[in-house]
Design a protein that fits this description.
Elements (H helix, E strand, L loop, with lengths): L1 H11 L5 E3 L2 H10 L2 E7 L4 H16 L3 E6 L4 H6 L7 E6 L2 E7 L4 H12 L1
């Protein structure tokens, strides 16, 4: 049954955020998808909660994958990407880090970023 769950998770990644735990899992997500928005967040962060519906919509309605990284559980990973405050969204295109957006931004801004790499 666990194998089916893993297969379902892989199939669902295009439509919902992928919760990442560790560098190797993030590397896999970045390798497997052309455009990835990585949302570095914390459960206690009010602005992060405001951003959550935006990143969920981006995951559901665009070709980009969205990964979520809890900075409290993954401090080394956040540090590796220079995340000093949350929310921070790091954008990858074709396996390379291309942009970093700090703070809460609107859905239109994230769609424009995704569109600039997918068109």
């Amino acid at each position: 049954m666990a194998t089916d769950t893993a297969a379902d998770a892989g199939a669902a990644t295009a439509n919902e955020p992928i919760h990442v735990d560790g560098q190797s899992q993030l590397d896999d997500v970045v390798t497997d998808h052309g455009v990835v928005l990585v949302d570095f967040y914390a459960d206690w962060c009010g602005p992060c909660k405001m951003l959550e519906p935006v990143v969920e919509t981006i995951a559901a309605e665009t070709d980009a994958a969205v990964a979520k990284v809890d900075v409290d559980a993954n401090q080394q990973l956040a540090s590796a990407y220079g995340v000093r405050g949350v929310p921070t969204v790091v954008v990858f295109a074709d396996g390379e880090q291309t942009e970093e957006v700090v703070g809460v931004k609107g859905e239109a801004e994230f769609r424009a970023i995704v569109d600039s790499y997918t068109e």
